[in-house]
Amino acid sequence: MPSTTQTLVIKIGSNVLTMANGSPDLQRMSTLVDQVVFLLEKGLKVVLVSSGAVAFGRKSQPLSPKTDAVSRKQVWAAIGQIDLIRAYKELFSGKGHPIAQLMVTREDFRDRTHYLNMKNCLQGLLKNHIVPVINENDAVAVTELMFTDNDELAGLVAAMVDADSLILLTNVDGIFKGHPSDPESELILHVGQKMPDLSQYISTHKSSFGRGGMLTKMTMAKKSADLGIEVLIANGKKDNVLIAYYNKDLKCTYFEPGKSKHNHKKWIAHSDNYSKGEIIINEGAKRALLSEKITSLLPVGIHAINGDFLKGDIVRIMDTSGKRIGLGKAEYGAATARDKIGLGGQKPLVHYDYLYISELN
Q1: Low-confidence winner among 67-81, 257-271, 281-295, 318-332 (lowest mean pLDDT)
Q2: For the CA atoms of the chain, what is the radius of gyration?
Q3: What beta strand segments (E) does the chain contain?
Q4: Are strands 190-191 and 131-136 parallel, antiparallel or unpaired?
């Protein structure tokens, strides 16, 4: 474990918390809680992002075959979340550690003020040595309100609390160059900032109980690492996985963090789903934004404006070939921006402080 790690976000996947027959794996949950307590007592601040509500509900309450798929998931989530959080409360309380529950949807991250309110709540819990246990509110989150999966939620939370490390616990050791069940497959141990695309190695198979697969884990891991958060994809089914992390001998896929970004840049980096329009920039502006210099996006570097947006909206920044360069918060609306296209001596459309340029491009 790097000596600089102070705040750690741990995401526990559905398949980690369930047995092959679909029953909740309370023994596995208990051992993971014991390991989290070990980390807490070593002085780390820990936030848990835990899946499992739908799986817990599915086992405890059979539903009519006539129940549609969306309603079935909502009902199981509403029922299962009670059992999930009760189990966590009993396990942590037995070790002398209080917990708190937060249920969120993607909408909760859209507004900056609401985002900061959640951040303040989490910081208050951590300062008072209370473990936040976070899950998507699957009972109300449908269609566009849904996260891709809890890996996306974990990445958002890690950015929100300025975490040093993010551990994504799944049922394999990490990303393999081949199928994980193939003994000849090689585990990718280290992913650097300039690592080539790994999607060629990843199966699109999704888990039995969760929504996501390894591809979404890799995507979120690379984005989080780009924001300055180290990420580990590891096997939560293995005994003492978090102890091995602390002892620096965990067998997993490790994503090397880049330079840490300011918190509002982290928020903007995760705001693509809320963006309102596109700013097409010319080659000169592209070179400036991709350089190491501190650069705002000025109207002189704008080629075109697509869509409509208002002051304070998140906008996508694209080059003329359609490649996304980054995201930013508009300093004024699209109508004003169109009037200023190509003009010098103008106020930035996106100020550097509210500009996220992806190093993954």
Answers
A1: 67-81
A2: 21
A3: 7-12, 45-50, 99-104, 131-136, 165-170, 190-191, 230-235, 253-255, 277-281, 302-307, 314-318, 324-329, 355-357
A4: unpaired
Query: Average per-residue pLDDT in the chain?
Result: 88
Tell me the residue type at 345: G
Query: What is the DSSP pairing of strand 45-50 with strand 190-191?
Result: unpaired
Q: How is residue 38 written in tokens?
A: 């070990």
Question: How wide is the angle at C-alpha 240 spanned by C-alphas 237 and 245, nearest 5°?
Answer: 105
Sign of CA dihedral 140, 141, 143, 149: negative
Distance CA 231, CA 8 (A): 10
Kind of pairing between the strands at 302-307 and 314-318: unpaired
Q: Residue 114 and residue 95: Cα distance in Å, rounded?
A: 33
Between CA 102 and CA 119 the distance in angstroms is 12
102-106: average pLDDT: 88
DSSP collapsed to 3 states, 175-208: CECCCCCCCCCCECCEECCCCCCCHHHCCCCECC
Do 15 and 23 touch, CB atoms closer than 8 A? no
Q: Which two tokens stand for residue 344?
A: 């010098």
Pair 96, 40: CB distance under 8 Å: no
Exposed / middle / buried, residue 67 (Cβ in 10 Å: 0-12, 13-18, 19+): middle
Q: What are phi and psi of 278, to 5 degrees?
A: -125, 140
- Say if residues 112 and 267 touch (Cβ distance below 8 Å): yes
Instruction: Look at residues 150, 37, 25, 139 and name the one whose alpha carbon lies nearest to residue 82.
Output: 139
Among candidates 354, 265, 349, 267, which has minimal Cα distance to 310? 349
Contact 153, 147 (CB under 8 A): yes
Task: Cite the beta strand spans of 218-344 per DSSP E.
Answer: 230-235, 253-255, 277-281, 302-307, 314-318, 324-329
Structure-model confidence comparison of residues 331 and 176, the more confident one = 331
